[in-house]
Specification:
mainly alpha
């Protein structure tokens, strides 16, 4: 583990600084808009714009990297993100903020794609799993700390934007000074949605549904907290617990999914998410509402964060190994589309039913996904546990394309080919 850490420490530092700055800006914007009494629909539009930019970055960002080279592309993307961060407090204009968030999402897709490809270059088949775990831990911890940094200065001032900008700029230093030659980004053409859906209908639908849940939860969670009168400190703790829950719960859930039918584990995770959200909504008028909110937020965040890696793991059980990188790209795109729509739909629910309707929205999406998972369980015989691949923790906030995934290394396994052909 120490040897693996030594080989990638500079890149992890860059990724950590990048995630710190991005996490800080991601909580400052919705809190500031909510304190300014911006309607939930507008807040949802601004926050969903980031994921719309992420979709664009997934589709076209790699082409830019191929044309100009990884170092120049990384520097350009980081400079654009840093510049847009300083524009927010200068012109407080809602359409402009939505445009800036879209630009930031596009550039962040390119930045994370470069870092993850670099990490892949520095890893071997023996260390790739460890490096992926280190990367996920770094991302989750940095995102959590980024949420808490909102308490350093007044959210209405310029200082937090400057701090976020400094962190984004500092992410350049360890990356561009690395001694290793640039990674081979390569073009990864995603499988068509039609073919990917034929291979794993539940994987594609669950990925999109995960985006619908996570986009709303992380995009509007801070705005929800401000809307019900929580302090900035309480909001940052709420979102920090939610984020860390995603890191902690992925491992035990992943272990269960390796021992039992993955669809059953996914079904119970979705039922748990729906139950937690309905309990939160039912207690919204209780004096203990905020206490229960903090107590359950880690479980809600953990459940929300496991849906996407479970969906990917399930799809990978039926995908040929040499197609896993392409399949992962298609699954990520499905997630990003859902994450773009999530804040828009959830914000309309909040505008109609109040802030606590955010939980009704998440419960409804989880319930529909659970029903579809149960339907698919009756349409396809479960794989025996020994035939399933290994679960791997994945972070939704990054742009992991599968090149770093240890499951995509080596020759195709015969049982995968058999089951993929049977699915077609």
């Amino acid at each position: 583990m120490l040897q693996a850490l030594k080989s990638v420490v500079s890149l992890l530092l860059g990724a950590g600084a990048l995630t710190l700055g991005n996490g800080l800006i991601g909580i400052v914007l919705p809190v500031r808009m909510s304190l300014a009494h911006v309607p939930p629909g507008i807040v949802g539009l601004v926050m969903s714009s980031y994921y719309a930019g992420l979709v664009g970055g997934c589709l076209w960002g790699r082409g830019i990297i191929l044309r100009v080279g990884h170092i120049r592309a990384f520097a350009a993307f980081a400079a654009i993100v840093a510049a847009t961060t300083l524009v927010y407090p200068l012109w407080i204009d809602r359409p402009l903020w939505a445009l800036l968030r879209a630009v930031s999402g596009f550039c962040m897709a390119g930045l994370f794609a470069t870092i993850e490809s670099w990490l892949n270059l520095r890893s071997s088949s023996q260390t790739r799993g460890k490096i992926l775990s280190l990367y996920m831990v770094t991302s989750y911890f940095a995102s959590t700390i980024g949420q808490l940094l909102v308490n350093i200065w007044d959210v209405r001032g310029l200082e937090l934007f400057c701090l976020g900008d400094m962190l984004l700029c500092l992410s350049l230093v360890p990356v561009v000074l690395t001694h290793v030659s640039g990674p081979d980004i390569g073009r990864v053409a995603p499988l068509s949605f039609q073919k990917l859906y034929r291979i794993s209908p539940l994987g594609v639908v669950a990925s999109c549904g995960s985006g619908l849940i996570s986009g709303a939860l992380y995009g509007l969670g801070a705005a929800f907290g401000a809307g019900i009168g929580m302090s900035v400190l309480a909001i940052s703790i709420l979102m920090g617990i939610t984020t860390m829950g995603g890191l902690v719960i992925q491992w035990p859930v992943g272990h269960l999914s390796d021992k039992y039918d993955r669809r059953t584990v996914l079904l119970w995770v979705l039922v748990a998410i729906s139950t937690i959200c309905l309990a939160e909504y039912a207690m919204s008028r209780s004096p203990w509402a905020r206490v229960s909110l903090l107590l359950l937020s880690g479980f809600l965040g953990g459940g929300a964060a496991t849906v996407y890696p479970l969906a990917v793991a399930h799809a990978f059980d039926y995908v040929e190994r040499d197609q896993m990188v392409a399949a992962s790209s298609g699954m990520l795109l499905s997630w990003a589309i859902g994450a773009t729509a999530g804040p828009l739909i959830a914000s309309q629910a909040m505008a109609a039913g109040g802030g606590w309707a955010l939980f009704l929205y998440i419960a409804a999406v989880s319930g529909v996904l659970a029903a579809f998972a149960r339907y698919r369980m009756g349409r396809r015989t479960a794989l025996p546990p020994e035939a399933q691949g290994k679960f791997a923790p994945l972070g939704e906030a990054t742009v992991t394309t599968g090149t770093l995934d240890p499951r995509a290394v080596g020759a195709p396994e015969p049982w995968r080919l058999d089951h993929a052909e049977a699915a077609l």
